[in-house]
């Protein structure tokens, strides 16, 4: 039986473990932290899945495959931790992010709907509609309940005989021999996949030179009573118009509303900057002023800081070296592709990694 070692128990490592297990490989996952790992980029109540992309048509073009891959995974784990509420984006200026995403959805013949400003008070009453040109809505997309997906995957992998080794930092990788050094000694397999997220730069000079960790903060909040009913049926959002990069997830599955603010995301150090400050919360809430009605009546519940690995052009990266694959399908938008990326990584192990690298990012490696 072929053997594989996987470094990293985030969504990409675990989905790769699943895909290889389904192909008859004997798999071991080595994780620096506990499993599940609450510090991983993949751990939160939810992650957004959406077909809206602007300037990245390659990723939009893979969304149908991404949804199909999640369906296969949900069948395996015998659960469907996904709330398909749909997704909206607002356009405030000609040529803004939403306008570009609209053109890309149209040219790819992907399902979408335009809501004119006069209909917004009825369909999205919690949104400040002044200055909005239109809302771009897709019926597909919504919230992947990421922590429940990770837990379901861990249960499935355990039941299928995958060896999971938590609390075991990998200190060194010999890519040619697929051997790793860990606190518990060395380990080796036929093939090695390193899907270590923000841990990649410490293990590989290419990632140290070409990628960086970014600190992203989100605020969980309860909406005012007057808007609760509207929020209970609302889609997620990926852009509130203009240059603000405001995204978020409505209350789903008994969870509070989640408010994200892309402009508050900055390069950061995952080892020292996990604490949140009152300033994080205030900055994010203030960014929604003039975007959400009656903003001062929202009650912040908790603020969370986490980190992801940014690669050039916000791309996904797959690099083959000897008997090792280095994988970062992240750049802040990787969870939605996790199930598909696992299948891709398994293809790369058994086939030509360069073809798969091109499939992942749209660019040759
Ligand atoms: C706040 C925030 C919001 C986001 N929102 C979205 C969203 O809405 N939609 C979306 O699609 N994506 C989103 N993303 C991005 C998405 O979460 C990531 O792309 C994805 O989770 C990356 O998964 P991963 O498995 O590559 O990395 P991770 O989940 O970080 O897993 C890597 C694992 O490797 C382990 N590791 C590191 N170094 C070592 C070592 N030396 N030895 C052993 N183990 C090691 C780590 O401990 C970690 O558990 C968001 C990210 C953040 C931070």
UniProtKB/TrEMBL annotation:
Organism from which the protein derives: Pontivivens marinum
Domain FAD dependent oxidoreductase: 5-347
Name of protein: Sarcosine oxidase/sarcosine oxidase subunit beta
Region forming the signal peptide: none
Keyword RNA-binding on entry: no
Keyword Repressor: no
Keyword annotations of the record: FAD, Flavoprotein, Oxidoreductase
Cofactor: FAD
Listed GO MF terms: flavin adenine dinucleotide binding; sarcosine oxidase activity
